[in-house]
Amino acid sequence: MFIFAGRPHGAPTSGSSASAPTTAPGPQPTADNDLVHRIGRFTAGFGERGGYRAPTSQERETVTRGVTLLFDGDAGAARAELATVGYTLNILTDSVSGRRYAEIADGDGGSGRGSRGWGRVYADLDHAPRWSVQVPHPVADSRTELLGARVLRGAPGGVMVLAGAHRNAGVDGAADMAHRTDSVFHGVVDELMRRGLPGIQLHGFANESFPGRDAVVSTGAGDRATADAKQLTAALRGDGLKVCPAYAERCPLSGKENEQGQVAAGDDVRFLHLELSRSVRGDDAALDRTAASITTLTAHWP
């Protein structure tokens, strides 16, 4: 197991492995370790109304601090910190990729206290963190959570930040993770960007919202990831998708107001915002191909 090493803002990460943290014994591997199935089961119970309670600032900061401690190589301190707000740090080995992942989740596995809806974080334990995939609207943007799991295990060094409730589950839009900064989701993504990790955020649209197109590729509020966006567009088009490149022409659904994209632009960190039609998201083979297209980026992100 490598040590998540802290570093100054914007400094590059290493893709190499290192020694395991020695501060505390790691948890035992858990059963049910196919990432796609595991995440699908977690999100299957999300309802469109209810199931989200906005965290206090202290709760939000505590979960983010626990994630930070894990990234800094102190699994024992991370586990203790997370436990103060009812979160656990588990280890699982994905049965498809064979990689070990940390799973930061509500202590009861998603029911009861999990109804707070604060979400989960998965991180590759066999490689230093290099990139992130973000899923702010699971179930609401149907099956983006399943695509996120595929993307996570597609390349080494991935971190997945997964929202814990339907985007309409909170009061006054409180559970819409892409447009809030007072969430655990945003706190963790902000920490990843502080560390300079590039990220891709996954979204979905109804076919009738943009007839004749399968995807919109955008760099959000900034332009740091324009070269990456061009590469992703080429990969998706190579798979036969009709893509609107928001970095080069006017496209709807370009995510310019996305809060995580705003932070990435301010930090000069590479950020991609990907919208996919319902037709693409509704087909497992299409999800596999789309994940493979994204992996052409994540496999080489520094």
Structural notes for this entry:
With 302 residues, this protein is α/β, with parallel strands linked by helices. The protein contains nine helices and nine strands. It has helices spanning 35-43, 57-71, 75-83, 144-152, 184-194, 226-238, 259-267, 278-281, 284-298, and strands at 87-93, 100-106, 120-124, 131-135, 158-162, 199-205, 215-218, 243-245, 271-277. Helix 1 (35-43) runs antiparallel to helix 4, helix 2 (57-71) runs antiparallel to helix 3 and helix 6 (226-238) packs antiparallel against helix 9. Residues 1-31 and 109-113 have low confidence and may be disordered.
Q: In a nutshell, what does this entry contain?
A:
Helix content is 31%, strand content 17%. It is built from 9 helices and 9 strands.
Q: Poorly predicted ranges (pLDDT <50, ≥5 residues)?
A: 1-31, 109-113
Rounded radius of gyration (Å): 18 Å
Helix content: 25-40%
Query: Could you give the distance between the termini?
Result: 19 Å
Strand content: 15-25%
Quickly count the helices: 9
The helix/strand order is HHHEEEEHEHEEHEHEHH
Integer average pLDDT: 89
Inertia-based shape: globular
Enumerate the strands of the largest sheet in spatial order, edge to edge or round the barrel.
1-2-3-5-4-6-9-7-8
Q: Which structural class best describes the helix and strand composition?
A: alpha/beta
Describe the biggest sheet?
9 strands, mixed
How many beta-strand elements? 9
